[in-house]
Amino acid sequence: MKFYSNILTLCAFLPATGAFVVQPSSPTRASPLYTYAGTNAGVGVGRGVSGGMQRTSPRSGDVERARDIWESTQPVIVQGSSLRTWSFNNPNVERVQVLMRTEGRPLHANIDLWNGPDNTPQKMAVYIEDGSRRPFCAYVETPRGPNAVAIYNTGQLEFPLAANVVADPSREPLAAVRLEQSRTIQGGALHTYPFDPSVQSVAVLLKTDGRPLNARIELLQGPNNNKQVMEVYTEDGLERPFYVIIETPGSGNVIRIVNTATMEFPLTAQLEPLVVDTSGEWSGYSNGMSYY
């Protein structure tokens, strides 16, 4: 009888103690608007908030300025296989903004900065699959004028482009600009930056400590699917850094930066989202790539 009474006492005690067991809560995952954690972490990761476009950077005014130039200035049409130049004889003009676009056709162009006879301190070769969806916008430092910017449409006659080259009133040198994501890329190396679909435009700044700069910037959307390619040469990457705004509509956007110089010539790459679309709900996964 004593044995059975002990069993009954134990059975009565077990459910009473089970009532006080604290059930572990399911972990919650923070979803910031964008994050830079990790070596190849996705930029622009997180959950959108209703409200349309959101400017995420002090440099986001560069996007609005480019749109204002297109609306207020009559562009110059550069036909295929033709050359147009813009001269700036005023020594106070120390930076110009170069804009190019098409009506939806591919864009092929070479951009040269001329500083005196037979002196080309900066060169760019640009390819864009759709010049209307991803217009080109870059800034070129023009110290010690007079300077001239030449745009050569390397496409065929059927592919004209519209171009604008205007003086930039900003006085801050590009070498002093600080973007959020910064990394040193050694000569011959590359680095990739995946972006969330909510990121609509990205600022990219390449510079050196005064040595020449040779780089290739690619915008990919899918495996080896180049939407935009820029090959850049700068005689002095500190005096004339390369600053460009890349439009990144859609999902699966990845920017790949390749230092095409030798090992003795590293470069510093800085990136930052400028405009984020907060009109929809974005998760941390796109095209099978995890950005957490």
Helix/strand-derived category reads mainly beta
CATH class: Mainly Beta
Q: What value does the average pLDDT take?
A: 82
Shape: globular
Q: What is the level-2 CATH architecture name?
A: Sandwich
Number of helical runs? Answer: 2
What is the strand content?
35-45%
Name some characteristics of this structure.
mainly beta, nine-stranded antiparallel beta sheet, eight-stranded antiparallel beta sheet, about 40% strand, about 290 residues, Jelly Rolls, globular, disordered C terminus
Question: Brief overview, please?
Answer:
This protein has two helices and 19 strands. By secondary structure, the protein is mainly β.
Can you walk through the features of this model?
The protein has 292 residues and is mainly beta. The protein has a single domain, classed as Jelly Rolls. Helix content is 10%, strand content 41%. The chain has two helices and 19 strands. The strands form three sheets. Strands 1, 2, 4, 7, 9, 10, 12, 15 and 17 form a nine-stranded antiparallel beta sheet that branches. Strands 3-8-5-6-14-13-16-11 form an eight-stranded antiparallel beta sheet, with no helix packed on it. The longest helix is centred in the first third of the chain and has 17 residues, at 2-18. The chain is globular and about 45 Å long. The termini are far apart. The model is unreliable at 14-51 and 281-292 (pLDDT under 50).
Chain-wise SSE layout:
Elements: H1 2-18, E1 53-55, H2 61-72, E2 76-78, E3 83-88, E4 95-101, E5 107-114, E6 122-128, E7 136-141, E8 147-153, E9 161-167, E10 181-185, E11 190-194, E12 199-207, E13 213-221, E14 226-234, E15 242-247, E16 253-259, E17 267-277, E18 285-286, E19 289-290
Antiparallel strand pairs: 1-17, 2-9, 3-8, 4-7, 4-9, 5-6, 5-8, 6-14, 7-15, 10-17, 11-16, 12-15, 12-17, 13-14, 13-16, 18-19
Keywords: Signal
Region (Disordered): 45-64
Signal peptide: 1-19
